[in-house]
Write a structure and sequence with these properties.
Layout lengths: L1 E9 L2 E7 L4 E5 L6 H11 L15 E9 L5 H8 L8 E9 L5 E4 L2 E2 L2 H8 L3 E4 L10 H12 L2 H48 L5 H13 L1 H17 L4 H18 L4 H27 L4 H20 L7 H16 L1 H46 L7 E8 L12 E8 L7 E2 L6 H15 L7 E5 L7 H15 L3 E5 L3 H4 L4 E10 L2 E8 L2 H13 L5 H14 L5
Parallel strand pairs: 3-13, 3-14, 8-12, 12-13
Antiparallel strand pairs: 1-2, 1-4, 4-5, 5-6, 6-7, 9-10, 10-11, 14-15
Helix pairs in contact: 4-12, 5-11, 5-12, 6-10, 7-9, 8-9, 12-13, 13-14, 16-17
Length: 561
């Protein structure tokens, strides 16, 4: 519900703050007072295209702020949550700024917001009926949703949307598998060859490093033999070897240590060194006995390393990565080998989900067609007492034959059509030339569907154009009826309509040396009498017109008892 509207420097409206309540609020004023500015202001906070000429002369920018209270289950709340724009306690504050130099800016709950978001949000906040472009009843989706609500088919429509999504997902999965099938044979043959190569190699983790070490040893066997033999000679076998020299040193120290015991430690250390030199010589001799040239093994090792590095280059991978690569390619190959059964299962799933969707959509079509006739009858009754005695509404439900032609909302195209004059064929709402007729038709539909609408605020801009007398009173009573369940604002020139309002705002223009100013003021009950009397008697307000105004208010149930 719209709680507050603040306007600054928009056209002739310098400053205006309006508090709004529930029920039916009428807006009256003389022609040219600026009633349309209020509707324009709301249009801007709902995402209308900004015109910089709307900025009041002599000022740099115009600003419009609208505060809405959102019920807990409002779709607007869900949209705010999705866009991370939530306010406090279910409040939604929209601010639109029009700068004379530069682009307009929009804010929702204090956060900068694209104008497109205002349009998406606005469809769940306010519905403007009249000449404006916010007339959601011209939207085919809105017409379909209203029929579903009236027919009690909203839940069924949800099941259809779910079934459609499941069917589409199954189709997408099948499409992916079929595209894979086109490339399957070539890829499978390549994988078979690659997997065979890697599995035949059977490379073990760490094996490449071991092979490199073995190749280095086998390739240097002759140098190792020569070096080992030289070491045996040096350590033990040749004249003047390390062992022999250490033996002489040990004997010399033995004699000296008998004279001076302090040399005993040196004697013992030399003795240990002599023993270790002999052990080292024995170890090298043993190594030399085991060492032998093995050109065949060297060839085997070299060939295996060549194969490892060749496959490494081929797959653009390090040798160690070939171990894991073999497993991954084997898994992909196994998946391709199983593609045939999976394709068959996917085709069966598409057919199964298609059948579920078709059945659900057929039931939805049945419910829509059953409700369409009743909706048309009830709306026709309403609009015929609203100054359109020859009008009739038709709710067309055209159902596609093939589920492939359907969508998330079913297989139906729903369209509201109206005949305004005898002998004319019904035409879509968008083809109705008269804005007044369209507004009254909208009012008739809203009366019937007031229990089902999710838009909390309805605005009717001069819905009473072209009517008078009893028809005007009927228009007022219908607006009041809708106001019992939704917030309704109506711009009117008729006293019969104005008298039916729960609340009354008067729009008037003042002028001074600096220019013209449009103002808005709420009227007390006695002030309402004067305003309605003014409408009845133009500029000549008499006691008779005041008495008539009081009588109209009393009949509407708004006067004091």
């Amino acid at each position: 519900m719209l709680q507050h509207l603040s306007i600054r420097n928009l056209a002739v409206m310098a400053a205006c703050d309006i508090e709004l309540g529930s029920g039916f609020t009428v807006l009256t004023g003389e022609t040219g007072a600026g009633k349309s500015i209020l509707v324009d202001a709301l249009g801007l906070v709902l995402g209308d295209r900004a015109d910089l000429d709307q900025v009041r002369g002599g000022t740099e920018q115009a600003e419009i702020t609208a505060a809405f209270e959102l019920p807990p289950n409002s779709p607007a709340r869900a949209l705010l949550h999705e866009q991370a724009l939530e306010g406090d306690d279910g409040e939604c504050v929209i601010r639109r700024v029009l700068a004379r130099e530069g682009r307009s800016k929009a804010f929702v709950n204090g956060r900068p917001t694209p104008v497109q978001t205002l349009k998406e949000l606005g469809q769940w906040l306010v519905d403007i009926h009249g000449q404006g472009e916010h007339h959601t009843l011209l939207n085919g989706a809105t017409q379909r949703d209203l029929l579903d609500a009236f027919s009690g088919a909203t839940e069924q429509a949800g099941w259809v949307a779910e079934a459609w999504g499941t069917w589409r997902s199954a189709q997408e999965r099948l499409g992916e598998l079929e595209r894979s099938q086109g490339e399957r044979e070539e890829r499978r043959e390549l994988l078979r060859f690659q997997v065979a190569e890697l599995e035949e190699l059977a490379l073990q983790r760490g094996e490449t490093e071991q092979l490199e070490a073995e190749r280095a040893r086998l390739g240097s066997v002759h140098r190792l033999m020569e070096g080992a033999q030289a070491l045996v000679q040096l350590l033990y076998e040749e004249e003047g070897s390390v062992s022999e020299r250490l033996g002489h040193a040990q004997a010399e120290l033995e004699g000296l240590a008998e004279t001076d015991p302090e040399l005993a430690e040196a004697r013992d250390l030399v003795g240990h060194s002599a023993a270790q030199a002999e052990e080292a010589a024995e170890a090298v001799r043993g190594y030399l006995n085991r060492l032998e040239a093995d050109p065949e093994r060297l060839e085997v090792v070299q060939e295996r390393l060549d194969t490892v590095y060749q496959l490494s280059r081929k797959h653009h991978a390090d040798p160690e990565e070939l171990v894991d690569l073999a497993g991954r390619l084997r898994a992909e190959l196994d998946e391709l080998e199983e593609l045939g059964p999976r394709l068959q299962a996917a085709r069966e799933e598409v057919e199964r989900t298609r059948g579920i969707y078709a059945d659900a959509a057929a039931e939805l079509s049945r419910m829509r067609k059953a409700g369409a006739e009743k909706l048309a009858e009830r709306v026709t009754e309403e609009i015929q007492v609203l100054g359109m005695p020859d009008a009739a509404l038709e709710v067309a439900v055209d159902t596609a034959e093939d589920p492939e032609e359907g969508g998330a909302h079913g297989m139906d195209r729903v369209e509201l059509r109206v005949r305004t004059n005898p002998g004319e064929p019904p035409r879509p709402l968008a083809k109705i030339a008269s804005g007044g007729e369209l507004s009254r038709l909208s009012l008739g539909i809203q009366v019937v569907l007031a229990r089902h609408t999710e838009v909390p605020t309805l605005i009717f801009d001069e819905v009473d154009v072209g009517v008078s007398g009893a028809v005007a009173e009927s228009v007022g009573r219908k607006l009041r009826t809708v106001g019992e369940r939704s917030q309704v604002l109506a711009v009117t020139h008729l006293a019969q309509v104005a008298a039916q309002g729960h609340h009354h705002l008067r729009i008037f223009k003042e002028t001074d040396a600096e220019g013209a100013y449009t103002r808005v003021e709420p009227l007390s009950r006695e002030e309402r009498v004067e305003e309605i009397a003014r409408i009845l008697g133009s500029r000549n307000v008499t006691d008779s017109t005041r008495a008539n105004a009081r009588e109209m208010l009393a009949e509407a149930g708004t006067a004091e008892s």
